[in-house]
Write a structure and sequence with these properties.
There is one protein chain. By secondary structure, the chain is α+β, with helices and mostly antiparallel strands. The chain is built from 15 helices and 21 strands. It has two domains: 249 residues, FAD/NAD(P)-binding domain (3-Layer(bba) Sandwich); 184 residues, no CATH class. The relative contact order is 0.19. Pfam families: FAD-depend_C, FAD_binding_2, Pyr_redox_2. It comes from Methanosarcina mazei WWM610.
C-alpha cells in the first residue's frame, strides 16, 4: 500500500465502531474474521506497518538499525510473521485451550477451525503427522533418559510464504468491511464507570466502541501491564521462559526434524528440578534479533524457499516466582537488560565448549568453529555473565540430556545465543467468553497472557469474538458461517 493509500485509509476511520481490536496479530485477525461474519463494524489498530511494508533491514545490512517499532515484532500479522511459520495443531502446545474452554473436545475443535482458515488463505495442504515407528522410537529414546517427546501434527508455512498468506487474510477482512488503522499506537483505554467505552490514541483522538478486544501480541506485554495497574484489571503473574537460542549443523537435527519439523522435548533438570524445553525449531533456518524498548533478544526463523546449513531452536527454562516478588516479567526484563549490557547492545554468542570450560568465546575461536553463526550482529562473550547461574546450569544439563537423544547437539562447536526470552505478560483473568473484569473489555492472545503461539493465539481470538457476539445478542452461529467457505 502506498503512503497515499494509508492516508486514505486513516481518513475513513470513523469515530465509533461496534468493536475495536487492539493488535493485528493472529488473535486480533481471527477475532475480526469471526466478527465480520456477524455483520459488525470493526476497527483493527496496530502500531506497526502493513504486511506488504514490513521488511527487516538486517536482511540487507546484516546489522540492526533499531527500527521503532521493530519490523519483526510489530505490524499486520504480528511477531509470528517472520518466525518459522509452523502451526502446532494441538490445544495444549503454546497455551491451554482446554483450561479456557472447560472442555477438551471444544479445544480440539477450535484448533481445527484455526487450521481451516489458514488453509483457506494458502497454508500447505500437507501436514507432518505424528504416527509411525520413527515417532515411537523417538519417544522411547527420550523416555530412556527421563525426557519426553511431544508428538504434534504440524503445518509449515515458512517465513517467506507467511507475508503473502497474511496479505490474503487481511484483504479478505477489508473486503468484508473491516477497517485497519496501522502505524498507530493506542495510548489508553477509555474506561467509564468500570465499563470500557473505547480507546484513546497516542495523539489524543478518542474512538468509541461498544466492545474492545485487548490483543496487542507479545510486543504489547509491557503496555498490558500498565493497563492492568492503571485500570485495576484482575490479573495474575504467570511463568516466564528464559534461555538461549541454540544453533547446530542441520545434519545433526535432520533425523528428528524429518519426523517432526518443530520437535518438542520436555526435560526436568536433576539439580534444580526445573522444567526445560525446546521451542521454535527452525530447520535449516536463521537466527534473528528482536528489538524491545530497552533490550534485545534472539529468535529464529526458517523459510520454505531458502535454507542455511544450520538448524536452530530455543532452549528455555521455566521460571516461577512467589514471594516476596511475583513479577516474572520484571525479573525477565532485568535479565535481558543485563545480557544486552554485557553484549554491548547485541546478543551474546558463545560456543558450548567455552561455556563448559568457563571461558568466554572470542572472534578467533568463532572463526575456527565448525558451526558458522547465521546471525552476524553479535558479541562473542560468556553467557554465564549475563544469565543467572541456575539457568546456565539448567541449560548445560538439559542440553547434555538432549544430546543422549540427538547425538551431537551438545558438542563443543554448538553455538548459544543469549538472551532468548519469551514474555507472556500477566495472565488477565477472563471468563469463559474472554471478558475481563471490566465490562465490555475482552482479551486474547500472547500479550494478554492467554496463549504462547500462533494457533492458540488465533483460537483465543475466536473465543473472544464469540463472546462479543453472544453479548451483542447477534444470535449468529459463527461455525455455520465458517462452513460456507
Amino acid at each position: 500500500m502506498s503512503n497515499e493509500g494509508r492516508a486514505v485509509e486513516k481518513e475513513k476511520i470513523k469515530s465509533a465502531y461496534d468493536v475495536v481490536i487492539i493488535g493485528a496479530g493472529p488473535a486480533g485477525m481471527f477475532a475480526a474474521y469471526e466478527l465480520a461474519a456477524g455483520k459488525m463494524e470493526i476497527l483493527v489498530i496496530d502500531m506497526g506497518r502493513d504486511i506488504d511494508k514490513r521488511s527487516c533491514p538486517m536482511k540487507a545490512l546484516s546489522y540492526c538499525k533499531h527500527c521503532a517499532p521493530c519490523e519483526i515484532m510489530c505490524g499486520v500479522g504480528g511477531c509470528g510473521t517472520f518466525s518459522d511459520g509452523t502451526l502446532n495443531l494441538r490445544p495444549d502446545i503454546g497455551g491451554d485451550l482446554a483450561a479456557l474452554t472447560g472442555d477438551q473436545t471444544e479445544a480440539w475443535e477450535l484448533v481445527d477451525r484455526v487450521d481451516k482458515v489458514f488453509l483457506k488463505f494458502g497454508a500447505p495442504q500437507t501436514a507432518l503427522l505424528t504416527e509411525g515407528p520413527e515417532v515411537e522410537e523417538l519417544k522411547r529414546r527420550a523416555a530412556s533418559v527421563g525426557a519426553r517427546f511431544i508428538e504434534i501434527k504440524q503445518r509449515h508455512i515458512g517465513s517467506d510464504n507467511a507475508p503473502a498468506l497474511i496479505g490474503r487474510f487481511k484483504q479478505d477482512l477489508v473486503d468484508k468491511g473491516v477497517d485497519f488503522l496501522i502505524e498507530t499506537e493506542v495510548h489508553d483505554l477509555l474506561i467509564e464507570g468500570k465499563e470500557c467505552k473505547g480507546v484513546i490514541l497516542s495523539g489524543g483522538r478518542v474512538i468509541r466502541a461498544n466492545y474492545v478486544l485487548l490483543s496487542p501480541g507479545r510486543r504489547g506485554c509491557n503496555w498490558v501491564s500498565e493497563m492492568i495497574e492503571k485500570h485495576d484489571l484482575k490479573a495474575r503473574y504467570g511463568g516466564i521462559d528464559i534461555g538461549v537460542r541454540v544453533e547446530v549443523p542441520a545434519i545433526i537435527m535432520d533425523p528428528v526434524t524429518k519426523i517432526n519439523r518443530d520437535p518438542k522435548f520436555h526435560i526436568q533438570s536433576r539439580r534444580y528440578d526445573d522444567f526445560v524445553r525446546t521451542f521454535c525449531t527452525n530447520r535449516r533456518g536463521f537466527v534473528v534479533k528482536e528489538e524491545y524498548e530497552d533490550f534485545i533478544a534472539t529468535n529464529g526463523h526458517s523459510m520454505a524457499n531458502k535454507e542455511s546449513e544450520n538448524t536452530n531452536f530455543a532452549f528455555l527454562v521455566r521460571i516461577e516466582l512467589t514471594e516476596p516478588m511475583e513479577n516474572t516479567t520484571k525479573y525477565a526484563r532485568s535479565i535481558a537488560k543485563l545480557a544486552t549490557t554485557i553484549g554491548g547492545g547485541k546478543p551474546v554468542l558463545q560456543r558450548m565448549g567455552d561455556l563448559r570450560r568457563g571461558r568466554r568465546s572470542t572472534k578467533e575461536r568463532l572463526a575456527r568453529n565448525l558451526v558458522i553463526n547465521t546471525l552476524k550482529d553479535v558479541t562473542p562473550g560468556d553467557i554465564s555473565m549475563a544469565l543467572p547461574h541456575r539457568i546456565v546450569m539448567d541449560i548445560i544439563e538439559g542440553l547434555e540430556t538432549l544430546n543422549e537423544i540427538i547425538p551431537g547437539v551438545a558438542s563443543d562447536s554448538t553455538l548459544l545465543y543469549a538472551p532468548e526470552v519469551k514474555f507472556y505478560a500477566m495472565h488477565l483473568d477472563v471468563d469463559r467468553h474472554m471478558e475481563t473484569s471490566i465490562k465490555n473489555l475482552f482479551a486474547a492472545g500472547d500479550g494478554a497472557g492467554l496463549s504462547r503461539d500462533i494457533v492458540n493465539a488465533a483460537a483465543t481470538g475466536i473465543m473472544a469474538a464469540e463472546g462479543i457476539m453472544k453479548k451483542a445478542g447477534k444470535g449468529q452461529d459463527i461455525q455455520e458461517e465458517e462452513n460456507r467457505f
